[in-house]
Amino acid sequence: MPTTPPAALEIDRGSAMPFYHQLKHILLVRMEAEGLAGGDRFWSDHELCARYGLSRSVVRQALSELESEGVVERTRGKGTFVVPRKTEHGLARTAGGLFDVAAARGLRLTSRVLRQEVVPASDVVGANLAVDPGEPVVVIERVRSLEGEPCVRTSTWLPLRRVPGLEAVDLTDDSLYRVLREQYGIAFGGASRSVEAAAASSETASLLGLSQGAPILLLRSTQRDAEGEPIETYVAHHRGDRSRFDLEIGAAVESATVQIS
Q1: Which of 12, 71, 157, 162 is the most buried (most CB within 10 A)?
Q2: Are the CB atoms for 224 and 130 separated by under 8 Å?
Q3: pTM of whole model > 0.85?
Q4: Per the database record, which ranges form the HTH gntR-type domain (predicted)?
Q5: What is the pLDDT of residues 24-40, one digit of tens each?
């Protein structure tokens, strides 16, 4: 790893800006210039103290701020490492699918289909889709990968009467929402979604390349069509170390619900 930054990136000892803040800015610029990526080892406290002539307390304060901002991760006995950048999926605030969100960001999303068949609706699925329990629904279970890396496991259910033949459509490299729009003429309306923290089961962990019990983000969604009729419900297990959901909050809070257990 190169250790010599551009000459301009030096501590200005005559500046009113605190040294730790200057160092933090310098390190962010160096990371970008030298192409440090997720998992790369960061400069040690000793290296930074020696290079910039700073006390260890100043260096630690700068690194503490970078850690609190999710830029680096410090592990006792191992050192400091760059945290992999998380993908903002946009699914908590837009009525759309992951395929469309990934395409808008120039990312390639592929799917490994684990199951795609017609089954009777369970009580929970029936309630979400406003159909009677036992009514035929199409279930689609997939592992979705961004740029070749598994990132989410999804289980999706749709009423068969609205999507006859969907169980035979190849969704390996295609968007389910595109198929629903173009092949079935479905126009989308609003959606109800919730996000919560969870621990990966042994099966989910194996599919996503995680250790059992690793943190995941559990997204539940029921999508409605333009007439307000439920058209799809799904549960998605997103890798906690690769995913984040950004929200836009307005002044009105009547529709927001917080549950604490």
Answers
A1: 157
A2: no
A3: no
A4: 17-85
A5: 889 988 988 888 887 88
